[in-house]
Design brief:
CATH class: Alpha Beta
Helix content: 10-25%
Structural class: alpha+beta
CATH superfamily: paralog of FGE (formylglycine-generating enzyme)
Oligomer: single chain
CATH architecture: Alpha-Beta Complex
Order of helices and strands: HEEHHEEHHHEEEEE
Number of strands: 9
Number of helices: 6
């Protein structure tokens, strides 16, 4: 378990790496009940139809796939992993304080638990030569087991396609609306009162901003929740152009409870070192349609 000294230490680490804060209900208990398949949504593939996406007008066809209706919760995490790293405790809150490595390991363990073939080959002993980070001391070599039917992280293109509504897109800026407050928990609305003015951490902390129970805002056109706001979500891809086969950071999408509204746009591209984690950093899972 990671040891947290105080909220100011967390804020310093989170903001340095690009993340951030606190809360306190009774820790959820693990259960033996399996995660139900109906937590996934079938996304019909095709080309991007939302002009507010990065790949609109490009030859980037997306195949059919399943994606989590919700961000992975602490309940789901506890059913698969030991311990709960989250700063904000609650069974139906999204899990946070998880690194990219934590997320891919969860995907494999959940796949095995549910009888699927793990999607990732994880070599913890060999440093990944594609990882250019000077701060990541882990640098696990993670490669896809192509054709496996297990859980995995979405690619950035899959994430953005699903967030933008797929073939049912109404061309919204955020995932499900042009009004962020309809669909997203972000720095203005994620605490006790609605904040105005400029982004200021002291105001956010005093307002007791935090993550919120999954599905508390409106879904997007595909019935998927929280793809704007609540927690930022890990994607598979390196954050790098034009060489997508290596990089310093992994891509994160969707913004979080601490971020500005601009981060909640479906087109926004965030970045975070694979070993980084923060109280606004989570993920959702994907599976291929077989």
């Amino acid at each position: 378990m990671r040891k947290l000294t105080n909220i100011f230490t967390i804020i310093a680490v989170a903001l340095t790496l690009s993340a951030c804060s606190r809360e306190l209900t009774a820790p959820p208990q693990s259960t033996s009940e399996p995660v139900k398949q109906d937590t996934l949504v079938l996304v019909k593939g095709g080309k991007f139809v939302n002009p507010k996406t990065n790949d609109y007008g490009q030859e980037v066809p997306i195949p059919d796939f399943y994606i989590g209706r919700y961000e992975v919760t602490q309940q789901e995490w506890l059913q698969v992993m030991s311990g709960n790293p989250s700063l904000f405790k609650g069974s139906q809150l999204p899990v946070e304080m998880v690194s990219w490595y934590d997320a891919v390991e969860y995907c494999n363990k959940r796949s095995i638990q549910e009888g699927f073939e793990p999607f990732y080959r994880i070599d913890k002993q060999t440093k990944d030569p594609a990882n250019k980070s000077g701060n990541d001391t882990l640098k696990w070599t993670v490669t896809p087991n192509e054709g496996a039917n297990g859980y995995r992280l979405p690619t950035e293109a899959e994430w953005e396609y699903a967030a933008s509504g797929g073939q049912l897109s109404q061309s919204y800026m955020y995932s499900g609306s042009d009004k962020a407050d309809d669909v997203a928990w972000y720095w203005r609305n994620a605490g006790d009162q609605y904040l105005t003015g400029d982004w200021l951490w002291p105001a956010i902390e005093q307002n007791k901003n935090k993550t919120h129970i999954i599905g508390g805002k409106k879904p997007n056109e595909l019935g998927i929740y929280d793809m704007s706001g609540n927690v930022r979500e890990w994607c598979w891809d390196w954050y790098s152009e034009p060489d997508v086969s290596s990089g310093t950071y992994r891509t994160v999408k969707g913004g979080g409870w601490i971020g500005d509204v601009s981060n909640d746009a479906v087109s926004f591209r965030g970045k975070f070192e694979a070993s980084g984690y923060g109280p606004d950093q989570g993920f959702r899972v994907v599976r291929a349609k077989k």
